[in-house]
Design a protein that fits this description.
heterodimer; A: alpha+beta; Arc Repressor Mutant, subunit A; Glutaredoxin; five-stranded mixed beta sheet; 7 helices; elongated; B: alpha/beta; Ubiquitin-like (UB roll); de novo design (two linked rop proteins); 17 helices; globular
Chain lengths: 154, 427
């Protein structure tokens, strides 16, 4: 069940488009903002609000990289795995993250509350390797930096 | 050297509306709404020969010219700034968005006026959080100053402008896929024709222009088409944002006259880092063909890069150095393309993961000579004319050129049954 605040926010998004259905991505973003991820129940509730089938909503939800259909940790680490970061050594960072957090891409460390995800080019190629944690960008990251960076989120 | 795009960029303290106006900002808009018709602006941009800076290099004015004009034209019409910069190795629009957001807004308002649009969107990729905050503030300022909203500066023309932040998918950079994403659908490309200029967002006439393209408009209106054309080194006018990333001494993004040479750009990036040699480079992002040392004196404009067998693309170069395995490099690119394929058409959906797997097996020393032949086959099957959009053909550009320029490296992986560069980290 969606909360009143979520429903209100989704109604606002519906009012901003010429067709109800066009608000589906914004509706998914509303749920993400409130819960961090989108459950099957939320997919069904959004479908009812927008006069869509749950399958239609899920076909959109599952298409986009940043709409999470599984629970995630309190913080999400987006490690850039694209070409400039590859050349500049993101794989070494990935190894260090695996060692420190005990998780691989797509997994969550529940104790420390981190989810680790690969990310397509962050547009920070002149300061590679780069990663984002939630909304914060970190540039020219080396394995030595990681401990300090992660500590600031726990 | 004139640098109209970046002269007022300030990353530490991006100009708010007052600061932007103090250096001549919004003068082009004020002058236009007083003195010029929409067709005047279209003609001026036509005369400037501005080519789209998103990678394709298509004439901006020609794109605009397909929009129905006059009393019978369907409304609302839309103008969209494509700020979904996701081409690996590309970080140029970020500079414009984070360093001088009002320049983009003024360019958008002028472009919207030229096609008589009613609604404008900025389609911004999610990762540009700083740009999102700055744009929100700048849009508010522009509304407050009367440059957006109803009856702009008493002209009788109105424009609404919205910021849309994406939820991550490379396909959204393709203009028709971007329109589907804005309509709340999966970002798969649409069949063309009809072209968006005739039937785009919600079936209405729509123009999608790249951020850098739109940022060129205010200075063209202020200084004229002849001035703009004169900025370039060769036939192609204007300035261009160029970038370099990889193992160079000073990676970054700078504005230069259109058509500087590869060598000049590399020199500006401080040359290769000590102990590394240049092996090759992608001139304009992940979906451009490799060029090598023999192309150092080639001009970085659309025509010269095409003549050299590649594309200018986004103008942001990625360097392959001699300590990085070319097979691993291309595998990384194909992993990206396979993952970001929208799955709409079969060759791309099935072919790219196949290519990625073959490259991984080569890198691990588990492949045979026939696998190289399979890669050659894919460069034909996934090339232009076989897929619904340009994603797979773009993916094949670095692969086909790598197979040619770095043939010895590929063969060495097969004969030695291992990566000669000692690459073993692939996750």
């Amino acid at each position: 069940m969606l909360t009143n605040a979520e429903i209100e926010a989704i109604h606002y998004e519906m009012s901003q488009t010429p067709h109800k259905k066009a608000a589906v991505i914004e509706a998914l973003k509303v749920v993400l903002k409130h819960r961090g991820w989108v459950s099957d129940e939320c997919i069904e509730s959004i479908a009812t609000l927008l006069d869509m089938s749950p399958t239609e909503v899920d076909s959109v939800a599952s298409f986009y990289n940043l709409i999470y259909r599984r629970p995630v940790g309190r913080h999400i680490i987006h490690l850039c795995d694209s070409i400039s970061c590859y050349v500049m050594g993101y794989e070494t960072l990935y190894q260090a993250l695996q060692q420190q957090l005990g998780i691989r891409f797509g997994e969550t460390n529940n104790e420390q509350g981190f989810t680790l995800l690969p990310n397509c080019c962050l547009g920070c190629c002149d300061h590679a390797p780069a990663l984002m944690i939630d909304e914060d960008l970190y540039k020219d990251v080396t394995p030595d930096h990681l401990q300090g960076i992660l500590k600031s989120y726990t | 050297m004139e640098q109209p795009l970046t002269q007022h960029i300030n990353l530490d303290d991006p100009p708010a509306i007052d600061a932007y106006q103090r250096v001549g900002g919004y003068a082009a808009l004020i002058k236009t709404l007083k003195e010029h018709t929409p067709m005047d602006i279209q003609q001026q941009v036509q005369a400037s020969e501005l080519k789209g800076r998103g990678g394709a290099g298509f004439s901006t004015a020609q794109k605009w010219s397909f929009v129905p004009m006059g009393a019978d034209a369907p409304h609302p019409k839309y103008l969209i700034a494509n700020a979904d910069e996701m081409e690996p190795g590309t970080f140029k629009d970020r500079l414009l968005l984070e360093g001088n957001p009002h320049q983009l807004l003024e360019g958008m308002i002028l472009a919207a006026y030229a096609i008589q649009a009613d609604i404008a969107y900025i389609f911004l990729r999610w990762a540009y959080r700083r740009a999102a905050a700055l744009l929100r503030k700048s849009i508010d300022e522009a509304y407050h100053a009367g440059y957006l909203g109803k009856n702009i500066l008493g002209s009788g023309w109105s424009l609404q402008l919205h910021l849309h932040t994406g939820v991550g998918r490379y396909m959204c950079g393709e203009e028709t896929a971007l329109l589907n994403a804005l309509e709340g659908k999966r970002a798969t490309p649409r069949a063309k024709p009809p072209f968006p200029a005739v039937s785009g967002l919600f079936g209405k006439p729509t123009i999608v222009n790249n951020v850098e393209t739109l940022c060129c408009i205010p200075s063209i209106v202020n200084n004229g088409a002849a001035w703009f054309k004169g900025l370039g080194r060769g036939k192609e006018g204007g300035t261009k944002l160029y970038g370099v990333s990889g193992r160079v001494n000073r990676s970054g993004c700078w504005e230069f006259p259109m058509g500087i040479t590869v060598r000049e750009l590399l020199d500006h990036a401080g040359g290769m880092k000590s102990g590394y040699r240049l092996k090759g480079f992608l001139p304009g992002g992940a979906s451009t063909d490799f060029l090598t040392e023999q192309h150092l004196d080639t001009a970085m404009d659309f025509a010269s890069m095409a003549a050299a067998g590649s594309r200018l693309g986004t103008g942001t170069m990625v360097i392959l150095d001699d300590a990085t395995c070319p097979v691993g490099f291309v595998h990384n690119l194909q992993h990206f393309f396979a993952q970001e394929s929208c799955g709409w058409c079969t060759p791309c959906r099935e072919g790219l993961p196949w290519v990625e797997k073959i490259l991984l097996s080569i890198e691990r020393g588990e492949a045979s000579a026939e696998d190289i032949e399979l890669l050659h086959m894919h460069t034909r099957f996934l090339g232009p004319g076989h897929t619904f959009c340009a994603l797979a053909p773009g993916a094949m550009e670095p692969l086909q050129s790598a197979l040619r320029f770095f043939k010895d490296d590929f063969d060495q992986h097969i004969t030695e049954k291992k990566c000669p560069y000692g690459n073993h980290l692939h996750r």
